[in-house]
Amino acid sequence: MGNYSLMSINADSTALPSKLRNGVSDKMTQNKKKGKNGVELGVEIPSGVEISIDGSVIKVKGERGELKREFSLGKAIAINQKDSKILLSSKFSRRREKEILGTTKGHIQNMINGVTKGIVYKMKIVYSHFPMTVKVQGNRISIDNFLGEKHPRTAEILSGVTVEIKGQDINLGGLDKEVVSQTAANIEQATKIRDRDPRVFQDGIYIVEKDGKAIV
Questions:
Q1: Domains observed in the chain
Q2: Could you give the C-alpha distances from 189 to 9, 15, 23, 152, 195, in angstroms and in order?
Q3: Which of 19, 120, 124, 187 could, after both became Cys, cross-link 155 (CB 3.0–4.6 A)?
Q4: Cβ atoms of residues 108 and 86 within 8 Å
Q5: Prediction pTM value
Q6: Is the CB of residue 33 less than 8 Å from the CB of residue 40?
Q7: String of b and e for 186-206 (b: at least 16 CB within 10 Å)?
Q8: What pLDDT band is residue 43 in, cutting at 50, 70 and 90?
Q9: Sheet (strand 213-214) strand order
Q10: Residue 200's pLDDT is what?
């Protein structure tokens, strides 16, 4: 109905008062400008980092290793490299395109951080009722005697993630932030307590730091 009404007004816009007629004209002009205005975001490429762009596939290589990722961007968004920057651009400035650009920029920045500094998540083993034993077995974490259970609980360690256990501390490291964070989530989820009062039973393995940022 909204489009039909606007078309009807345009068809006989000369019959409108000048103030309203100008308002309709101004609104149509603004809409055209919004469609033409694009959005561009940039990601700085640090010294020592090599970038390869093939369509929507990006390879990032640094002193710690190499990461490759394919992005689902759509036809309206492009990735290019200019000098020491990766440029993400969209033909439109609509919310959807802005969200995709922002998310893509974040992923690329994480890739650069991963191959230059590495990604580290820290976890803490907490128990008050039953001492638990945590160890690495192949591509899994084994948690024995959790809440006195006879069978161990386990969590998957995703490919590319290293796990170091020192006393009550667990350090997870890798290049890819997503697989490191997912491995940490797997471990935390494995010790989730059900059917008990969480105010009394606080045993578990918890994420305490995400890539340098403490969890309060």
A1: 39-116 (3.90.930.12), 119-214 (3.90.930.12)
A2: 60, 68, 57, 14, 15
A3: 187
A4: yes
A5: 0.76
A6: no
A7: bbeebbeeeeeeeeeeebbbb
A8: very high
A9: 162-166, 169-174, 119-126, 204-210, 213-214
A10: 65
